[in-house]
Amino acid sequence: MPRAASICLVGGCPKRTIRSGRCVDHAPPERAWVRTSARNQFRDAARRIWDRHVRPRALARDGFTCVRCGGREGLEVDHVIPVAQGGTWTLGNAQTLCRQCHREKTAKERRKQ
């Protein structure tokens, strides 16, 4: 059996309710669905700091060359100790590597696990 219509909880409003005991005029605004967890929000903030502050400083500090082979093409800034293994998002944990050296380092780290 359907529920009986009820009136708005706001004093003096005779309109029918639609949601949360209030009418269309007094219903609270709908909140957007938050799809990121607190953990992901922290990671995204750390990534922005990395991209804006740490990465350019690491490139300049290392002279825009790969610290392993001295190459100047396809440079990437890498975490010396991966974040997943307890590394930080700071300049002290950053190094400049070319793509090839970065791939080799990443493959070596994955073999260790």
By CATH, the topology of the domain at 58-112 is: DNA Binding (I), subunit A
The CATH class label of the domain at 58-112 is: Mainly Alpha
Q: Shape, please?
A: rod-shaped
Low-confidence stretches: none
Largest pleated sheet: 2 strands, antiparallel
CATH architecture classification name of the domain at 58-112: Orthogonal Bundle
Strand order of the largest sheet: 1-2
The protein's oligomeric status is single chain
Percent of sequence in beta strands: 5-15%
What does this structure look like?
- Strands 1-2 form a two-stranded antiparallel ribbon.
- The model has no long low-confidence stretch (mean pLDDT 86).
- It has a domain at 58-112: DNA Binding (I), subunit A (Orthogonal Bundle).
- The longest helix is centred in the middle third of the chain and has 24 residues, at 38-61.
- The protein is α+β, with helices and mostly antiparallel strands and 113 residues long.
- The chain starts with 37 loop residues before the first helix and ends with a helix.
- It has two helices and two strands.
- The radius of gyration is 27 Å and the shape is rod-shaped.
- The relative contact order is 0.11.
